[in-house]
Specification:
Layout: E1 7-12, E2 32-36, H1 48-56, E3 65-69, H2 71-79, E4 87-91, H3 102-110, H4 118-123, H5 134-142, H6 152-163, E5 175-179, E6 194-196, H7 203-206, H8 208-220
Length: about 220
């Protein structure tokens, strides 16, 4: 298989993270051409769809494979609406509001998410305001070295657009890989996914081989 025949795969990281979270994701170069789409600085009050369109300008292949982690999963699902990807895969994410945990539904209604600043979300000190438990906060602390996107405007924008994502019905063609121990998006709320046993919300870092196996199975199916 020549380079021109490799399959292009575009990865979008989770909220507040960058390409570093994919440092252990290594796919065979003779079969796959991997790209990482970095977060852009959002414009003031920029609609999600407009932001997604700007991010999609980084995709230079027809029919790419899109892979998004956490909030990046929301982004690739919105990209799917304006592109023609061969496959769309989400990891540690949700396919619609129906999969939101209670704290996110509560935060969406009460707007309490506005209390979370860039400093708060990245220091984990304010997560209790949304009902996140000690286990979730402990896991997020372990991700601190990977939370490199600290701009206040970006974080505030991302939190708002995650909590207020308006998709009510899932797209059945989206592939979903999810950990059974995800503390941010608990598995009990997730419908139809490929389960990674004992995978937490940060499993892209410590369950990488299992995730790669699932991605390859999906891509080659």
């Amino acid at each position: 298989m020549t380079k021109s025949e490799t399959k292009p795969i575009y990865f979008v990281p989770g909220m507040g993270t960058d390409k570093k979270i994919f440092e252990r994701v290594r796919l065979p170069k003779q079969k796959y051409e991997t790209h990482i789409i970095e977060w852009l600085q959002p414009e003031e009050n920029e609609p999600l769809q407009h932001y997604v369109k700007r991010m999609a300008e980084n995709i230079v292949h027809d029919n790419p494979i899109l892979v998004g982690v956490s909030f990046g999963g929301v982004i690739v699902q919105e990209m799917k609406e304006i592109l023609t990807p061969d496959k769309t895969i989400i990891v540690s994410s949700v396919k619609s509001r129906q999969e939101f945990p209670r704290y996110m539904r509560f935060g969406s209604v009460t707007k309490l998410y506005k209390l979370l600043t860039a400093t708060g979300i990245l220091s984990v000190s304010d997560l209790g305001k949304l009902g996140w438990n000690a286990s979730a906060k402990k896991r997020l602390r372990k991700m601190q070295p990977y939370l490199n996107v600290r701009d206040q405007q970006y974080i505030s924008w991302a939190i708002k657009n995650m909590v207020e994502w308006d998709r009510e019905e899932e797209d059945p063609s989206v592939y979903h890989i999810h950990g059974t121990s995800d503390e941010i998006f608990p598995i009990k709320y997730i419908d139809k996914c490929r389960k990674i046993e004992n995978g937490t919300h940060a499993m892209i870092l410590n369950k990488t081989p299992s995730i790669i196996d699932e991605i390859v199975k999906i891509v080659e199916s």
